[in-house]
Amino acid sequence: MSTQARHICYFFDYGALSMYTLGSAIAYSTYVFPEEWINSTFHHYYVPIAVLNTVISTGLSCYSRFPEMQQPRLSKTLRTLAFAYPYVFDSTPLFYRLYLCTGESCMESVIPVHYRHCMFAFLTCFIFAAHLPERLAPGRFDYIGHSHQLFHICGIIGTHFQMEAIFIDMNARRDWLLASSPLLSCSQTVGSISISIIISLTIIGAFSMALYSTPKEKCHILQACI
């Protein structure tokens, strides 16, 4: 695989991760929002802002591959920010529900599952940013136990708990949500996803074209980078 093709594969990977954040936002808007925030101004603009975050995340993460060799810390910071910020925004209603709200939604059985998801999400971000454990013992975790492996394992487990919590909320709060909150329209779901896909593909295409106008020695990135 050529260097440019490898970069482009990463671009699509970043675009898919950005779309995941939008899917989380749509699910949270429908099933997870705390009772106090239903039909609020923030609730109405929550999904549109998530669409914007998806675009920013795709663009920022794709751009982060270009300064990798000259400014590796900047590259890592941009890439971490590109995915941490949308997650924090998406999880704002959940964080409120877990730590600040006082209604019945705070006492539901799903709360421990949400806590597990948040714990593994934090571990995912921490391992990605810290490069542990290979940072403490270089050369000993090149094949097994590398932070990239642990990062994916924690991410998968966290996503499992996230989906489990959403399903529990969906079933437990269905009647109340149907009575208290309007269903998301097609434009808010299919429309938002379609717009995000089109814009993300456009961004990926633009950065892919930029790769072929960049000297090969500047395109080269170490195999360990993600």
Index terms:
226 residues, mainly alpha, 73% helix, 0% strand, disordered C terminus, metal-binding, membrane, Progestin and adipoQ receptor family member 5
Brief account:
It is found in: Membrane. Zn(2+) binds at residues 148, 152. The protein has 226 residues and is an all-alpha fold.
Folded structure, characterized:
The protein has a domain at 3-106 and 174-219. The chain has eight helices and no strands. The protein has helices at residues 3-32, 41-63, 72-99, 111-130, 147-172, 174-180, 186-211, 216-219. Helix 2 (41-63) packs antiparallel against helix 3 and helix 3 packs antiparallel against helix 4. The radius of gyration is 19 Å and the shape is globular. The relative contact order is 0.17. One of its GO terms (molecular function) is signaling receptor activity.
Fraction of helical residues: over 70%
- What is the averaged pLDDT score? 87
Distance between the termini: 16 Å
- Could you describe the largest sheet, including whether it forms a barrel? none
Q: Which structural class should the secondary elements be placed in? A: mainly alpha
Quantity of strands, as a count: 0
Q: Shape, please? A: globular
- Write down the Rg: 19 Å
| Number of helices, counting only DSSP H or I runs of 4 residues or more | 8
Uncertain stretches: 221-226
What is the succession of H and E elements?
A: HHHHHHHH
Strand content: under 5%
Task: Set out the fold topology.
Elements: H1 3-32, H2 41-63, H3 72-99, H4 111-130, H5 147-172, H6 174-180, H7 186-211, H8 216-219
